[in-house]
Fold:
Amino acid sequence: MLGKFFLTLCAWNILTKYPTTHALKFPDDFLFGVATSSYQIEGAWNVDGKGENIWDRLTHSDPDAILNKDNGDDAAKSYYFYKEDIDLLKEIGFNLYRFSISWARILPNGDLSKINPAGIQYYNNVINYLLEKNIQPMITIYHWDLPQKLQDAGGWLNPTIVDHMEHYADILFKNYGDRVKWWTTINEPYFIVFGYSEDDHAPALGLGSPADYRVSHHILLSHMRIYRLYEKKYKAQQNGKVSITLNYDACFPKTKSPEDAEAVKRYFEFNLGIFAHPIFSSEGDYPKLVREIVYNNSKAEGLTMSRLPAFTEEEKKSLKGAADFFSLNHYLTYICSPLPANAPENITLPFYKDMNVMNEEENSKSQLHFFKDKNATNKEENTTSPETKGEKMEVKSEGFRSVLNSVSKAYNYPAIIISENGLDDGEMNDTVRINYYRDYLNQLLLAKYDDKCNITGYTVWSLLDNFEWNLGYTNHYGIVSVDQNSANKTRTRRQSSYFFQSLIANRTLS
Structure:
């Protein structure tokens, strides 16, 4: 099976030669960053006026929804130790820190009925300390932690969420925009949708379709309103850049069949295009392929209208070009084919039926998807195939170059910042993760120099071991270890942090 897959990659593998000497060097202005998110590291869940969010509610009301009944009440206690964390950033050499604002820490009820001065001051302190250390802040406005009060009113299913997002963003621009020049509105919309259509993520409603497409629609409208707000009210004075953070894992056809090639196209449009096409394409609107498939399937289901909402002409016009750069999260590669007749129930919800793509192999309890390398015998013989949590999972770094080329060609070679990339490795001497980063950065350089992709920055996920959503603290993405059993969540640098310290200092990948 995988032998056929590797045959389909023969031509690709010929292209993946190591870069020439000049390509091993990162430009002096290339941004090296590291990322976190508020719920995953801050803790202090009910401190200093912060309101309840949907992850607070889920982890407290249904502890079994998270592995080991973990929650983010304390997380890494970064609310208290943010200076120590920023000192680590400075020590390693990162010049960019991507972090998110806790909406409920700024607006405890989610709306303008109450503004929390302590929350506003906290992030002022974080931003000021970053700038004191010559580190640029990149703020994610929304990273999945919706205030529970807004969820009680319907959350992302309620069209009023668009107004609430705009009001919230306005407060952030007003308070922080004089110092913050990098913004992303919403992180990985795909996983926000999961909280409504499925039950793995908060608010864990499991509503299926059309909830999935309604949430997607409101996410895009929210992004549009925030971007245009900044453009009209703040950009001339603050001179910042705004985007939306999208995630896309590479997908190669399982065989050379036309059916598998079509599956790859559908995978791209349903996973990335549904959010990127309205903003970055020359045509605007949802991808034609997505609109046609959802309409036809809706009609076959006896519905009188498509499950996919339609934009007005004015909305389509306002969405086009509503980004100053392409913020891309990427982790791995897997192989795709059409859904088999006996597809598991968890991938035959309406959205998956619309997409009609089978990933191989998918770990349904993880945000990240891997496929097995049957040719690998151990980690030493195949260093890009880490053995994690008892599974041999191949992470094909060549897929990264493929994704960068796909995004560049589809959307007229935008400036790309890799806003997340990383691997779970709990070892202190995390050589598996180091090899992963070396391989992926090599592919980034190939894409930048040989393929002329306009890649301007790279951000590591993550600085710290953190609360990995429904996986709790069982995964370890931090290049800095956090001891969850210690009172102060003791930080200890892993070997991968020293890899980045050397890379950033020398600007050379060796």
About this structure: The two ends are 34 Å apart (CA to CA). The CA atoms of residues 16 and 128 lie 42 Å apart.
